[in-house]
Amino acid sequence: MTTTVAFVCVQNAGRSQMAHAFAERERAARGLEDSIDLVTGGTRPADHVHPEVVDAMSDAGVDVSERMPREVTFEEVRDADYVITMGCSAEDVCPAGWAGENRDWDLDDPDGRSPDEVARIRDDVEHQVSDLFDELEAE
Question: Which of the following CATH numbers is that of domain 3-134: 3.40.50.2300, 2.40.30.70, 3.40.50.261, 3.30.1490.20?
Answer without folding.
Answer: 3.40.50.2300
